[in-house]
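Exercise: predict the structure of this protein bound to glycyl-adenosine-5'-phosphate.
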Amino acid sequence: MPEPEDTVDAHSGGDAPTGPSDLMDKVVGLCKRRGFIFQSAEIYGGFRSTYDYGPLGVNLLRNVKNAWWDAMVQRRDDVVGLDAAILSPPAVWEASGHLANFSDPLVDCRNCHQRWREDKIGGVCPACGSTQFTEARAFNLMFKTHAGPIEDEGAVAYLRPETAQGMFINFANVLQTTRKRPPFGIAQVGKSFRNEITPQNFVFRTREFEQMEMEYFVPPAEAQHWFEYWLDERYRWYLGLGIPESQLRLRHHDADELSHYSTGTADVEFLFPWGWDELEGIANRTDFDLKAHATASGERLEYFDQTSGERYVPYVIEPAAGATRTMMAFLLAAYSEDEVGGEARTVLRLHPRLAPYQVGVLPLSKKETLEPTAREVLALLQPHFMCDYDVTQSIGKRYRRQDEVGTPWCVTIDFDSLEDRAVTVRDRDSTDQVRVPVDGLAAELRRRLDGA
Ligand code: GAP
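Solution:
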């Protein structure tokens, strides 16, 4: 049997670290130390506000996106997927209003010359306290580039600042090929780019990030109903994946906060270490986008109901979430410290569907006699779960390492396993250990995952 562990101290369902900045430092430190997130181009001194997702981060991020896709596409018959191009011509952004409106008010401090977003600083320079600024000027957030070898105006292209426009410009294609009728949605997950003036708070606001967006096309008269429906659905998605209710809220925008296309928006907010902030915006975009693209392109972007003979431009309800930002919220919510057998441990209480590894496969010792059975168990589990295989250090230390990255179950192969064809399954949160026959192992772990 693996080394025994005392159960988790009764008081410690997972204490949060002592203070907010402390939590942030710990999570950022863990991300780097264990290979979740690295500063991009670190060997060249780092490239500000860009990050690379390491071996564990890429799994976690992928699981976040898969969980979204599962809820928004796979389990619905009214939503289909799309993966549109990142590079797009100016006409798209002209019509969408982004060339004219997608800008932040930029000011320079006259004293220390730092550059800020005027709407974020309340008239006082956060660096030096001065209240003297240059006039605000609009700074467009889109990244501009050139397609092809000639860098002239005719070759201008933009990196998309949101995935949403891909759904609008493909509305007619999707309608024709899928024969969907409103209410129906088009969903997309992918990279977006914004030349943010003040990227900050780790991966909360970066210049390159991933979004998970869905455009839900509805008869105009039903727009308010579906707006409320999606508020509720999206709020519950975060709860279901382990964000505690005390750290999640819905906040309706005031009229002066609304985007240029929206008549109603509410944000799903998470209690970050610096306060409540946005994870996702759910907006009633009306028929703004389809009408704008129809006018600019000359194409008909509307729905013709053959039974009623009615022709109309659908309204759009848009739940728009950030994948990278949401991943960070899951990490912050999951981080906790407790004690096992009188020893401090760090544990990421990630939902098992999100954890970078679902299973750690740990032969009790490095002795060669254990390896064939351990590898057999690994091969048995790999088609079903993302597994880590670790033979280094004592079993206690390996459990701690798996706890720290959120692995919900460890499977230990010991010398008895060679005789009884059973292994020990150890649970991350309770540290309970039970013996499970190898033959029923995948089914047992699947049962636990489905029940989580
Ligand atoms: N299509 C609507 C739209 O893009 P948004 O509120 O600007 O709306 C949606 O963006 C989500 O994308 C945000 O709630 C946030 O999670 C994420 N997001 C936006 N800008 C971001 C940035 N610079 N870095 C990381 N995530 C960002």
